[in-house]
Amino acid sequence: MTLHNQRFDVDAVVLDIEGTTSATGFVVDVLYPYSRSRFGALLSQRSGDPEVARAVAQVRELTGDPDADAAAIEKTLDAWLDEDRKATPLKTLQGIIWSEGFARGDLVSHFYDDVVPALRAWHAAGLRLYVYSSGSVAAQRAWFSSTPEGDLLPLVSGLYDTENAGPKQEPESYRRIAESTGIAPSRLLFLSDRPGELDAARTAGWRAVGIRRPGEPYYEQGVGDHAQAGTFDEITISTSRSTT
């Protein structure tokens, strides 16, 4: 169903990134190749970094190959990229590479034109904003701090990924986020383009709106029986409770 001037009275909005705030094509066509070209150097030159070592151990565990060397790890990461697999160690290593790319100015993030004005308006109205993405927290932080509109991180109250919250299609992940924010599930609104994620959020007691943008991978599939919008400015959100 579409939104017809429907107003959501909630205390916080939780945002998906790919297909929701930003174009999936940018991630796949720009960020994925950028990380692919740098996996080898990261694995060979910085294997002693705790975050890299932890991700490597996770790859070995997931593949059942405890002796996998850097070349085998890189091959697995490339295969997961080809599958668009949301594996936590892949996202961790991508996050490291992307964060450094954004910091160097090699990368600038993408947001749909309707997104930033809406986020600023919602924040100014007293709503808390959170991000829940399969991309790592490090990648999210870099994404929101390196935008064409400047640093948007001050608008965001918290960042969640598959490591600190859990898989995005499991209701327990959304319960975990609600507990972390201290906000009642019914006072949380989740925006995503993926029906499985919307279903999981609703099962956890959240409100949910499916974002359907032409050209995005899930546009034709739709968002099931969830409320849907084509842009953020089709959604009216307010809060009648204090968020402090």
Strand-and-helix sequence, N→C?
EEHHHHHHEHEHEHEEE
Main β-sheet description: 6 strands, parallel
Strand content: 5-15%
Number of helical segments with 4 or more residues: 9
DSSP strand tally: 8
Q: In what order do the strands lie side by side in the largest sheet? A: 4-3-2-5-6-7
Low-confidence sequence ranges:
none
Average pLDDT for all residues: 94
User: What radius of gyration results from the CA coordinates?
Assistant: 18 Å
Structural class: alpha/beta
First-residue to last-residue Cα separation? 33 Å
Say what oligomer this is.
Answer: single chain
The level of helicity is 40-55%
What does this structure look like?
It contains 9 helices and 8 strands. It has helices spanning 24-36, 39-45, 50-63, 70-83, 88-104, 115-124, 137-145, 171-181, 195-203; strands at residues 7-9, 12-15, 128-132, 156-160, 188-192, 207-211, 227-229, 236-238. The chain has a 6-stranded parallel β-sheet with strand order 4-3-2-5-6-7, with helices on both faces. A two-stranded parallel sheet has the order 1-8. Helix 7 links the parallel strand 3 and strand 4. Helix 1 crosses helix 5, helix 3 (50-63) packs antiparallel against helix 5 and helix 8 crosses helix 9. The protein is globular, with a radius of gyration of 18 Å.
